[in-house]
Amino acid sequence: MDKAAIRKTLRAKRRDHVAALPENMRALMFHRPPAPLLDLVPDDGAIGLYRAGPLEAPTASYARFFFEQGRTIALPRFWAKDRAMDFAVHADPYEESDCEAGPFGIPQPVGDADSANPSVLFVPLLGFTAEGARIGQGGGHYDRWLADHPDTVAIGMAWDAQVCDELPMEAHDKPLSAAVTPTRLYGPF
Q1: What is d(CA 22, CA 171) in angstroms, rounded to the nearest whole number?
Q2: Total-model pTM
Q3: CATH superfamily of 3-186
């Protein structure tokens, strides 16, 4: 099966899984990072997170948790659809008053927000394996960013239904350092 077909299957599987969860329980499942996961987070540097869409593993509680620990929170920022992703400081994870819609329609830090280079990056995904392989939406933004920042700890956030027995990996695909679901921590790999 090619990656496009895998993505289609994984999107449907994720959609069905999330639809079966009570809406008021979804964010509670990722309320606080589990202690073994915190052991993987470097003591310094920004914490990179993503703005979760309705079907993605939610990140808002993790942003508030790390912010309350005094850590700098960074979100992806796109200047244009055809440009590389960078990260910028997200100074308000409660009200999100420092965000604006980016070129993909996803809220991102405003254009004059300070740039940031996360030391750990919580990565969105469609599927992952227990060995650290990951498949995303297909744009390659995270793979390119991780290739340019090889010392960054990459942690996938996913629902339990997103674990796969195997995934095709190409030379440009960057593996995860670990993955977290509501019930389990996979890795470190």
Answers
A1: 39
A2: 0.94
A3: NagB/RpiA/CoA transferase-like (3.40.50.10420)
